[in-house]
Every structure is written in C-alpha cells, then in structure tokens.
Amino acid sequence: DNITALLGHNGAGKTTTMSILAGFLPPSGGKVVVRGKSIFDNMDEFRSNLGLCPQHDLLFSFLTVREHLIFFGMLKGLSMSQSEQDGAVLMSKLSIFSKRNEQITKLSGGMKRKLCLAIALMGSPQILILDEPTAGMDLESRHQVWDMLLASRGHRTTIISTHFMEEADVLGDRIAIMAHGLVSCYGTSMFL
C-alpha cells in the first residue's frame, strides 16, 4: 500500500484517468483490476472500500460541515455516532473543526477542499482516489494535508493527481507523468 502520484498539466488526462479508476467511466481499452478483481464486475465491493475526493467539490449548500460528514459516513455504512466520532477526528486533523456548524456557502475554497478530503477519508477506506485535493489551498494547508496523507502511507493505497511537481515528489512513492491521456513515464522521483 503506497501513494502513486499522477502528474501532468491541465488537459493531460488525469481527471479522466481518475474517473476510470473510480468506476465512473469505462476504459477505452484494458481493464481496471483491484486485488485481482475487475472493478466493473465487483463494483459494490470496490466502492465499499473506496474514498473519493473528486476534482470539483460535490457538496450540498444547505448542509453544515458536520452534517456532510455524518451524511457521507452513514452512506459508507457507519452508524450515526461513529460518523460523528470519525468526523470530529478528521475535522480536527484538517483544522476545520471550528467550522463544523457552518454551511458550505460560508466556507473558502480551501476549506471546501478540506471537507471533501475528510469525506473521502470517512470510514478509513482501503483505497483513496484524490483528484487535485490541495487545489485552492494555501501552502500551510497543503503541507497539513501532505503530512496527513504521509502518516497513512502503508495503511491504504492512495492515488493522487496534481500539477505540482513538489507535491508529486513529496507524496508519491511512484510518479506517473501523463500527457495526451497516456502515461509517458512512471517511476520513483529519483528515477524520473
């Protein structure tokens, strides 16, 4: 279990690749296999172990930060009390606990990204797919997210897309450089 970074400019194919890996789009060739099983043949099992932070925030304007975490935690099969507990821990780790009773419309872009990351982490998924999770965050927040992801290295498989070389270098055990929808180079940062 490690962190793979997809690195590429805007339009390189990172988001499309992430959508295929998450099972939202069918691959135009080949197949997506997780632990020896095609995700498209075992979608329920795959998604029950998946945490997803899409490129664009999928949040409800009428819910608070806390309500989002409870809602998505329960969608992932957690009890309400477990969702409350997990949500409180994640809000603290991501420095959004003070915003727990705020509606989404009152949050900055960086705070919304932190909430989307917290949603992805609810239930401690075995697979984490993060599409530009630190977009819109200040440097301090980005480093906070990096530290959190690095602390969970070895406990889950994480795939993160970014257009920041520094982020790919810090986080990625392996880096896949994408261009025109294809992986043009893959290896450790030392190899690249």
TrEMBL record:
Record GO cellular component, one term: membrane
Cross-referenced SMART domains: AAA
CDD domains: ABC_subfamily_A
Entry's Gene Ontology molecular function annotations: ABC-type transporter activity; ATP binding; ATP hydrolysis activity; lipid transporter activity
Cell compartment(s), UniProt: Membrane
SUPFAM superfamilies attached to this UniProt entry: P-loop containing nucleoside triphosphate hydrolases
InterPro entries documented for this protein: AAA+_ATPase, ABC_transporter-like_ATP-bd, ABC_transporter-like_CS, ABCA, P-loop_NTPase
Lipid bilayer topology: Multi-pass membrane protein
Domain of life: Eukaryota
Domain ABC transporter: start-end pairs: 1-192
Keyword Transmembrane in record: yes
Primary site of residence: membrane
Family note: Belongs to the ABC transporter superfamily. ABCA family.
Protein name, per record: ABC transporter domain-containing protein
